[in-house]
Amino acid sequence: MTNGFLRVGAATLLTKVADCEHNTNQIIELTVKAVHQDVSILVLPELSITGYTCGDLFMQKHLQDQVVEQLIRLKKETETLDITIIVGAPLAVGNALYNCAVVISQGAIIGITVKTHIPNYSEFYEKRWFEQGHNLSQNQYLIDSVHVPIGVNMLYQHRDFPEAIFGIEICEDLWVPNPPSGSMAVAGATLIFNPSASNDLVGKSEYRQSLISSQSAKTIAGYVYASSGYGESTTDLVFGGQCLIYENGTLLSKSTRFVMENQLVVSDIDLERLLSDRRKMGIYADGYQNDLLKYTVCPYHNSFKPLQVNRYVDPHPFVPTDPEKLHVRCEEIFNIQSIGLAKRLEHIGCQTVIIGVSGGLDSTLALLVCMHTFNLLNMDPKNIIAITMPGFGTTDRTYRNACDLILQLGCTLKEISIKEACLRHFLDIGHDPNIHDVTYENTQARERTQILMDYANKANGIVVGTGDLSELALGFATYNGDHMSMYAVNASIPKTLVRYLVNWVAHHKTPESAKNVLLDVLDTPVSPELLPPDTDGSISQKTEDLIGPYELHDFFLYYCVRFGFSPSKIYYLANMAFYELYTEATVKKWLIVFYKRFFSQQFKRSCMPDGPKVGSINLSPRGDWRMPSDGVVRSWLMEIESL
Fold first, then answer.
1. Domain boundaries, position 419
2. Between the CA atoms of 613, 614, 618 and 623, what dihedral angle is there, to the nearest 10 degrees?
């Protein structure tokens, strides 16, 4: 296991119905293949030793004896293989036959899970042969002179890595209203394995995938599913051999159906990520002890080798890669922002908003939100008073874009230069205006905020803030300057998503004349424009040159706040996600900057204004993030330095 990742596999085999020796040969072959791919836990289909479609042959004593014989052979021939396998087998226990999943690890059968729900409808006649698991009269099964735990309430926990705990539900168990995996998850199972024999019908595959996706999300678990395939009897049914691996609702890997060969799918489940989500939800902690008491916990022990993790890590976790999903996401976020502002305006009986527009991305998005809000409320856009406040660093390009956009949207344009006021303030406090330090920069930001606040009083309106989530995380805002407003519509929008939102609005919510301005805003470098332009009039102060690429910082923020990952794991994931763009040294450099700023700038977030939460991460001190302003970052930095 590497950085919380555990490699799992699901396999389907070329079955020969009732030929236990052949099927066991195929299982051994697939197990060896899985070991070569560093799989730690492998699941095979339901009744994989015999085949699912044996019918009344299940009741033959010879077949039942063959099952036991091949299970003993299987555990012996896999004794030297560093893997835990789950195979399906019919087992006679006392006066009945049970549909079972047998767990084998390092030459031992460590436990047997019995199928709880027996289907007996449509094409399924399992009750003809199998008894329900709840009717099992004993909790031990004797095989090869060893008593093995058996039952419906079984969990399997690694001896060295307690978070690697799994439960098993068999086929129909998933399809009932209250699947056993729900209780297993509350009791601690982070992984659910499902050996299945689900025949294929038109449309069934899509429904099956949605069912597994939903259950993995409901249980916040990894869900590994293996179904019977080619070789099962086709007397009445056909089995496509679908194997699926999900993590908390997300598909990680799947097989191709209707293939006439053995198949193995492999993926890496992030157990740390699952546990992080669970620890935020009281239900898992509240129900843990009571649910765990009803389970028999069987230890297993195979070594978890260091992995070269084999899964895609999205470099932009806030931005969907699928264009259709991105469209839906942008529309939803834009509506959340607008409805939030609309409610605030209605609640306080306000007809006017004041917004500072610089020609940059953040203020552009905030202005567009104001415009949409006024449309929703049937209010005159002239009551959106958009103030551009050119200063020492304002370039012609951003100034022109700000003015053009305001006019194209039909808002009220006000231009108030801050230069003379700032020079007067420099004189008052004894600051040399030729020294372009933090005083020089912050004076401009605070002057702009003062103008906005005072104009809001004059116009009986409120100031709409423009700062985004990334700036709040890094503290890249002037305290009591652009840090402050009366309602901050971008407060939980990360910088990497702001760009996509503006682009979406440009193509879906604005007239053609405004669209061209928005596209030029999108093409402008991110800058606070507080330092004088270059000699050619271009922006000289580029934010990402100062604090690092926003795509890196948004990535760090996502995994730091959303999952509470350690710096070393975030570093590991970032190098996977950005291996073609940034060197490891570059990632490390900006990760240090992120943690230093994230800790030291909490005091700004402690008194941030109201603003709508739109996604899974929000830094409001009244909502998702409560952090002391005096938290010490030293140990986080020490971990990064040691990488």
1. 323-641
2. 30
